Fold this sequence. Notes:
By secondary structure, the chain is α/β, with parallel strands linked by helices. It has helices at residues 47-54, 77-84, 102-111, 118-131, 147-159, 177-194; strands at 3-14, 21-32, 36-40, 62-67, 70-71, 87-90, 165-169, 197-201, 213-218, 221-227.
Amino acid sequence: MAASIAIDGLQHHFGRGALRRHVLQDIQLRVAEGEIVLLTGPSGSGKTTLLTLIGGLRHGECGSLRVLDRELIGANDRQLTEARREHGYIFQAHNLHRSLTALQNVRMALEVRGRLSAAAMDQRAAVMLERVGLADHLHKTPDQLSGGQKQRVAVARALVHEPPLVLADEPTAALDSRSGRDVVNLMQQLARERGSTILLVTHDNRILDIADRVITMEDGRLREDGRAA
């Protein structure tokens, strides 16, 4: 089966000189198209760093990092921007624009692609917000939403254009158990219906059952790669 993510010998450091620290060490990973993989491990183990490299949010150093058939090691800023448009990214801190409504925040993910009319973008954004339980909050700004509601807007923004790859950093961290389950079920449904690949960083043991595989990272290395329970 074709791989959405293919990583070979990926290394990454933070800092310089005496403060230089090896964050990722010889990462080898393949995630097949349509696969749901959860990445777990202690805080500071390198999970978010790996996710941001896969998402084109920072420049990689060495090795090979192919995402949706694009090699990201050595990519310039423009190439990384183009790569980011091909997937959906759910940030741990939601990263919503405070001056925009929930509907406008979600619509932004469609605007950067320029493939739909304004009315069609509004309709699709509204439908996705309804699917994450925010039908009555379309025109509220982030300051008018709870932490859990903001996170659901971020999830809707990542999923609205039905991307082939979804990268999620602790998407259920700010949600109660019911809302968290609804969100991961929606992500699982997208994977099954559209063949989308999902790589999800989490500490939430309640959602391990959605995964095809659970991978554990410790001290910058992938220590374990097993089937989900």
